[in-house]
User: What shape does this take?
Amino acid sequence: MRTPQVESASGLPAEVTIYEVGPRDGLQNEQTVVPAATKVEFIRRLEAAGLRTIETTSFVPAKWVPQMGDAEQVLGALGPDGVGRRRPALVPNERGLDRAEELGLQAIAIFGSATETFAQKNLNRSVTEQYAMFEPVVRRATSDGLWVRAYVSMCFGDPWEGPVPVEQVVEVAQRLMGLGCDELSIGDTIGVGTTGHVHRLLEALGHSGIGTDRIAVHFHDTYGQALANTLAALQDGVATVDAAAGGLGGCPYAKSATGNLATEDLVWALTGAGVSTGVDLDTLVETSVWMARQLGRPSPSRVVRALAGA
Ligand code: HMG
Ligand code: MG
Assistant: This one.
């Protein structure tokens, strides 16, 4: 079978926005730097598969993430965003915003940490110091009319600190959203969360004034929980889901982070449940098979493997 039998599930949104992170989260963790021309082709193929929001790159120093050192080249080759399409990029600081605005970017994402250890490792700052770095970025970006997403990492557990209290995550989320961001993406950076935890965090965020209409979920699939956790979040009203084509992904500053939820696995599950995504699964699978060839290893996505061999 190339598509699932459709049997509508109750309690899910009619439509889900997939926020594709393959070109950024997927490729930032590769051992080798993928050539800019390959990245450009990857992004164009993803767009051809119907993905409307694609996180393309990061405006961070190349010495921190060499894999994203070609941001200007990639975005320069892609050209302008186009109507109905969003190509956000990670921006940690004002220098990053200068670079993004020079290329005419319309959407950016800041990325904070819920824990001290990861804030130090990933941002070279404490949790408190991260706000001072992000504040001028969000102020200028929003006043220039850019759309701004705020990630919070380590929302469900931290490899150095262990369990992360829900209240601690909510406090960081409130501080970042209080800067004026449009969307919050809650990151399970190391893939340890489970469904009850997802419900608990979404409920606590709701009580703090951040409703599911402004929340996206970002699950890495290290422990095989990403799809279950996503469906749990959708039942609570979330309608934006981060995923990476072929299940690529990870974070160079958190070794236990592996691939993101595979976009193909998500599309299969949602299609079967009668939820529309606007994505053409065959084109997407072809793209991931092509990308796996470029990277020299098979995709970890179950759906890619099933359909590529079908
Ligand atoms: P720092 O070293 O403290 O920065 O790093 P600095 O301000 O002291 O600057 C050091 C040098 O870098 C200076 O140059 C700056 O000009 C330059 P020098 O004077 O030495 O020649 N510089 C820049 N150059 C280009 N673009 C810039 C920039 N900024 C400074 N934007 C910094 C602080 C935040 C920059 C660093 O810690 C950093 O880049 N961290 C990002 C690491 C990263 O990208 N991690 C992966 C993404 S996060 C993730 O994957 C999680 C997520 O997926 C969600 C989840 O899964 O949970 C989003
Ligand atoms: Mg991530």
Observations:
- Residues 25, 28, 58-61, 64-65, 90, 92-93, 95-96, 99, 111, 122-124, 151, 153, 187, 189, 218, 220, 251, 253 surround 3-hydroxy-3-methylglutaryl-coenzyme A (ligand 1) (CB under 6 Å).
- The chain has a mean pLDDT of 96.
